[in-house]
Amino acid sequence: MSDVNADGWVSSGHRPMGFREFVIVIASIMALNPLAMDMMLPALPNIGAAFKIPVENHLQLVLSTFLMGFGAGQFVMGPLSDRFGRRPVLLGGMAVYAVASVLAVVAPSFETLLLARALQGLGTAATRVIATSIVRDCYVGRRMASVMSLAMMIFIAVPVVAPSFGQAVLLVTAWRGIFVVLMLYGLLALAWCVLRLPETLPESKRRSLAPSDVLSAFRQTLTHRQTVGYATAAGSVIGALFAYVFCAQQVFTGIYHLGQYFPLAFAAIAAGTAIAGFLNARLVGRLGMRVISHGALTLYTAVAGVMLLTESLGVLSLALFMVLSALMMFSFGMMVANFTALAMEPQGHIAGTASSLYGSITTLIGIVVGMAIGQSFDGTLLPFSIGFFLSTLAALAIVLVVEKGRLFRPHHRPIS
User: Fold this and answer.
1) What's this model's pTM, rounded to 2 decimal places?
2) Omega of the bond prior to 16 within 30 degrees of 0, cis?
3) FRET partner for 364 with CA separation of 20 to 30 A, picked from 4, 65, 187, 238?
4) Which Pfam families match (predicted)?
5) Range of the domain at 64
């Protein structure tokens, strides 16, 4: 851990901000990503009508293109931040996000809108990578996991309210108004960071951008069993979550006929993740990252199996689907911060590059899995149930390999 105050808890690396403001700022910049994703869900039919999109599944591109920019952008954000510091890369990414939001507001065609979405994703790549790197600059181990959990609790609350917020915007304006709101939020977060967020990477710890040094950092990250293993496992479980988000509007309005009440159902389910973030922040210091995340992965697998079985038997009612989806979100919330902390724990000396590769691996795997499941949507939940189950089994198998079959037990040092 870096220099701390008398309480032995709060890092001095993020002064002048106190602990609470630090967590809120980290959560706020991380929230740019899910806000830009989930506010769009109620607007997809409106966008389809505006641009005369004939195939409903093609509207998922509004979400997946955003994630492609997000995943690809993370490859470069970490090395840049390791060389030039966290602040300039973060502020530059947030500026790109704001400009992309303006482009989306005035987009004359569906293709231009998709370009704007890709640029928005590119901008949020900086916010996610730099947020993780800043936390790693200031904290390590279980304390890092606890800080990440507190930030994730706020961050994950965004998907709970974002669709309802998007629906509220649609009540007073057209779908382009959502991008106006996203732009204003981005500018507010940018101003807060300019005024309050310090540089957390000292000059003495910055790394060269020479190809040999960058490749060396990539090699150190990609050859570390714990980092790559947890990144791959996280990508698999995120893939199922992406598929859920991609299909949510079609499932709730097409299969269960909820109409304008879809955002309420989505919010009720997403609340499970926020609850999990709160519990994880309370428990991780006592139980450890492995005990909690491995237990959550086991629950995630069981939920996937029950969903596949009930859908195969034709008894997956709305009530049961919502319960299982809430459990899916809860277990995901207990996993994600811990998987991130476990992957990043051995990479403190190259936190920016490691955060980039971790984010890229998880996002790109998630996109491939999520799009494969989402584009197979056929008006039933069977493709989603099968994809959810298979991707979860893959994640469990990967963690078993990483941990050499030893689940639920903490290690005294990271696996090399």
Assistant:
1) 0.77
2) yes
3) 187
4) MFS_1 (PF07690)
5) 16-209
